[in-house]
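Lecture 7, part B: from sequences to assemblies.

Below are the input chains for today's worked example.
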Amino acid sequence: MAYDLWYWPGIQGRGEFVRLALEAAGVGYRDRARSDGVEALVDDLDRRSGIRPYAPPYLVDGDFCIAQVAHILAWAGEKHGFGAGDQAGDLQLIMLQLTISDIVAEAHNVHHPIAGDLYYEDQKDAAARAAENFREQRIPKFFRYFEDALSANDGPFVLGDRWSHVDTSLFQLVEGLRYAFPQRMKAIEGDYAKLIACRDAVAELDGIKDYLASERRLAFNEDGIFRHYPELDAA
Amino acid sequence: MAYDLWYWPGIQGRGEFVRLALEAAGVGYRDRARSDGVEALVDDLDRRSGIRPYAPPYLVDGDFCIAQVAHILAWAGEKHGFGAGDQAGDLQLIMLQLTISDIVAEAHNVHHPIAGDLYYEDQKDAAARAAENFREQRIPKFFRYFEDALSANDGPFVLGDRWSHVDTSLFQLVEGLRYAFPQRMKAIEGDYAKLIACRDAVAELDGIKDYLASERRLAFNEDGIFRHYPELDAA
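Predicted structure of the full complex, as C-alpha cells:
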C-alpha cells in the first residue's frame, strides 16, 4: 500500500516536511503531482467538496484525506511508529511541530511580507526590512527554543535516541535556513550545538541518506519557501 | 478542578479562541495573567525548561502543559466533549482549526507585515498594501473554504446540530474581522450565509451568551490580533 501525496511539483516547500518523515520511516507514497502534473493536482483539489484541504500538501488513502503539515505528521507518526508512542509524548511532539510550522510561515513571509500572490520583486523593500528582523530576532529566538527542547532528553533527537517527525522537520528547517541565509547561519550555528547535532543525526538515517541521494529530493530554488536572495542575507 | 490559562492580559488575542471553547463547554479555568498580572505570566514562562510553550496561550493542569491554540482545542475538545467524538471527525476538525490559525496569522500580518516586534506606525505603508490583498483575495478565499466545510452537514455547526471548537473559533474569526474590517465585512457577508449562521448559532449558546455579557470578555482593541485601523478597511 502507498499513500498519494499531493503537493506542488518543482519545489520542496511544505510538502518536503511530509516527504522526509515518510522517507525516513520507509513508508511508501506516490508524489502524484510530480508524476501526473500540476493540472492533476488542481483537478484533484477542485473535485473535493465539503471538509477538504485548504491547500496542498495533503495525503490521501482511499477515501481518507488529511491536510496541514503538522497534522499529517502527527497522524502518520502515530500510525507508522515515528511519534512518541504515548499520548503525553505525542502531545509534546505536536506542540513542537506546530512551532516549526510557525517559523516556516515566517520564513516565507520574509520574501513575501505584503502578500503571497504578489511577486517578490514588487515587495523587495518590505522584504529587506522583514529579513533583517527575521535574521537577527526571530531565528535566534526559535533556535533557542528548539535547543532547549533537544535538552529534554540526551539527544541527538528530541525523544533521545529515537527519531520522530519533529527531528526530520528540524533537519529541513536547518537545511532551508542554510540555503536562504548562508551568512547568517554560518555566524550563529555554533550557538546551537544540539540543533545541529539533531540535523546531522537525521542526515545519517538510512532512509534519509537514500532519499537525499535520489532524484526524489528536489533542489532548493527561488519558487519555494526557503529562497536565497543574497540581498536578504547578512551575518 | 479548573485549568490555569496563561495568556497576555488586556487583549483577546489568540487566547480568546481557547476561552470561547471552554466557556461554551462550561469548563472551569483561571485566567492567570488577568488575576496575577503580566509579570506572573513572564515568570511562569521563564521557569519552564525543556519542551515548553514557545509563547502564550498555554493551558496548565498540574504538571501537564499544552500550547498552540489548535492543539489545545483538539486536546480539550476530545477530553471535554466538544470534539467530534470519533477519530475521523476529530481529524477533520483539527484540519479546519489549523486553517483558522492560518487566517488568524494572516490577519495579524496585515498590520505587522514587516515584523511583529516593530510598531504599526513604522510599517503603515506595507500594511496598507497587505490589507488590500487580505480584504480582496484572502478573506473571500478562506470564507469560501469555511462555507464549504459548513455544507458538509446540515448546519448550523460544522458537525450539524452539535457545536465543536471549530464553531467557536469561526465565531471569533467573524467577530474579529467585523471589528477590523467593518466596511469589507458588510460588503461580503451576504455571500457566506452558512458561516454567518454558524456565528449566530454560537452566539446563542448558553455559555457564550453568559460569557459575552460578562467582564471576562474583553473588548477588541488595537493591541490585539484584530485591529481596527480605518485606513486599512474598505468595502
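Note for the exam: Residues 9 and 37 of chain B are 7 Å apart (CA to CA). Keep this in mind when comparing with the next example.
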